[in-house]
């Protein structure tokens, strides 16, 4: 150190030299000193809530990322994730994406990892279809949804992971889906379109405080996973865009979806568990699902859909405080002969609906099949469906409830529901076939297969009293400082 003072009599020169040496060491050692990286200039402090805070942090710029909207950053993102994975046993690591437009193809996430997007950061999905890797169909589907065979991997993808956080200060992920939608309509795609975020076979997952726009297909798809929190998500797609479902929990256990706003060309929330014989064989239900404080706009689909791919079963779904505007239906159950599986113990409480085609819709005739090998004797069981405390206005038809002949939908309970009909409403507000249940305090009066139990029963159809495990999970307050 004494020799440094002899070489640089000015103290500021010594500081600059030490900073330069630190920068060189960081370049040589890559990740090892990123957490303490100090450069001249300003700094940003950002705070957020997460299931886990991280012991290490790095910026995508440190891996050569360029946020100019033109430079492809796929290799930079994947290298960053791979390098940061070495900290998994030390509290994990966080990858910070600063303001800018970051063009990228698909990249894989890792365990004990946080991806954080600055409020002015935009991940732009590459439109080079030929560069997207293709993966096998999901085993519980056995078939691509857009075409037979494989599917393009999702933009953000992870499998067999633990403790993963994808979050930000409302940063944006833009799927640039128009090209994909055009190719889909022209039937030119050889494989199924990618999703924006897909997490498979994983445990303890958080996706929060992001804006997702123009997904090629589904936006958020947790599948074969458990202990999932999805909150503070804004999803926007053109209302005519094909299959741009918002959030699709699929064969998942213990999931919490809350405080989200979705404008979509398809269902805002679509609950799934596999398709026909493939879903029956895989046998992994979606259960213990909480949906609350959701706002939805989807003129051609549902605020919440159960199915149609539900062959592994759906059980114990609780939806509360749902707002839907200009949406085809409030709650829709979709199934068919050949699906097998079950949808049971469904609880919906507190819906405010405006301008709907149907408030409630159940159908046992949703005949889309993976292939011709489904079992025509595999009948779904739909039972224990509870709706209460619903107010709707400008509705063309209160409900369309159609079970399956010889396999009725049973245990339907509807209470304290007021539906204001539109000026050009259907002549008969309710249609019912092959359904059984009860009602109380419902206007207009339901069909005869839902006999009124009297005003004293208006409090029936209520939620279970005990919380789901995922409701009791509290997020931690995390804070990081990025220096420039």
UniProtKB/TrEMBL annotation:
InterPro entries given in the database record: GH28_Enzymes (IPR051801), Glyco_hydro_28 (IPR000743), Pectin_lyas_fold (IPR012334), Pectin_lyase_fold/virulence (IPR011050)
Family per similarity comment: Belongs to the glycosyl hydrolase 28 family.
One annotated GO biological process: carbohydrate metabolic process
Alphabetical UniProt keywords: Glycosidase, Hydrolase
GO molecular function: polygalacturonase activity
Top-level taxon: Eukaryota
Protein's recorded name: Probable polygalacturonase
Record carries keyword Hydrolase: yes
């Amino acid at each position: 150190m004494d020799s440094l003072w002899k070489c640089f009599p000015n103290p500021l020169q010594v500081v600059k030299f030490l900073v330069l040496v630190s920068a060189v060491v960081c370049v040589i050692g890559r990740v090892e000193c990123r957490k303490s990286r100090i450069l001249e200039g300003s700094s940003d402090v950002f705070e957020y809530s997460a299931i886990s805070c991280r012991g290490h942090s790095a910026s995508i710029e440190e891996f050569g990322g360029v946020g100019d909207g033109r430079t492809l950053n796929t290799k930079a993102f994947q290298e960053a994730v791979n390098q940061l994975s070495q900290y998994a046993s030390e509290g994990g690591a966080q990858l910070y994406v600063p303001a800018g437009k970051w063009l990228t193809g698909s990249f894989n996430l890792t365990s004990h990892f946080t991806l954080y997007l600055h409020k002015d950061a935009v991940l732009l999905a590459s439109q080079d279809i030929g560069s997207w890797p293709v993966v096998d169909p999901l085993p519980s589907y056995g078939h691509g949804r857009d075409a037979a065979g494989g599917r393009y991997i999702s933009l953000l993808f992870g499998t067999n992971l633990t403790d993963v956080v994808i979050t930000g200060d409302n940063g944006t992920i833009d799927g640039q889906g128009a090209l994909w939608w055009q190719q889909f309509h022209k039937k030119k795609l050889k494989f199924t379109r990618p999703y924006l975020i897909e997490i498979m076979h994983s445990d303890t997952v958080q996706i929060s405080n992001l804006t997702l726009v123009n997904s090629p297909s589904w936006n958020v798809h947790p599948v074969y996973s458990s202990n999932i929190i999805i909150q503070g998500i804004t999803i926007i797609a053109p209302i005519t865009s094909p299959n741009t479902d918002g959030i699709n929990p699929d064969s998942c256990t213990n999931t919490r979806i809350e405080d989200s706003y979705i404008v979509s060309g398809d269902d805002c929330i679509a609950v799934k568990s596999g398709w026909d014989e493939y879903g029956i064989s895989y046998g992994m239900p979606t259960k213990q699902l909480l949906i609350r404080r959701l706002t939805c706009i989807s003129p051609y689909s549902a605020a919440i859909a159960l199915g149609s791919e539900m062959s592994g079963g759906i059980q114990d779904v609780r939806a509360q405080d749902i707002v839907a505007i200009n949406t085809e239906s409030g709650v829709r159950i979709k199934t068919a002969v050949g699906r097998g599986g079950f949808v049971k113990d469904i609880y919906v409480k507190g819906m405010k609906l405006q301008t709907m085609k149907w408030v409630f819709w159940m159908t046992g005739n949703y005949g889309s099949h993976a292939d011709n090998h489904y079992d025509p004797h595999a009948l779904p069981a739909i039972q224990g469906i509870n709706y209460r405390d619903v107010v709707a206005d400008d509705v063309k038809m209160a409900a369309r409830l159609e079970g399956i002949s010889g396999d009725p939908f049973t245990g339907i309970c509807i209470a304290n529901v007021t539906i204001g009909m539109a000026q050009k409403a259907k002549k008969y507000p309710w249609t019912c076939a092959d359904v059984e249940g009860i009602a109380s305090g419902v206007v207009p009066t339901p069909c005869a297969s839902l006999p009124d139990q009297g005003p004293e029963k208006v409090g029936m159809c209520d939620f279970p009293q005990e919380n789901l495990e995922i409701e009791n999970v509290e997020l931690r307050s995390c804070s990081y400082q990025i220096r420039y």
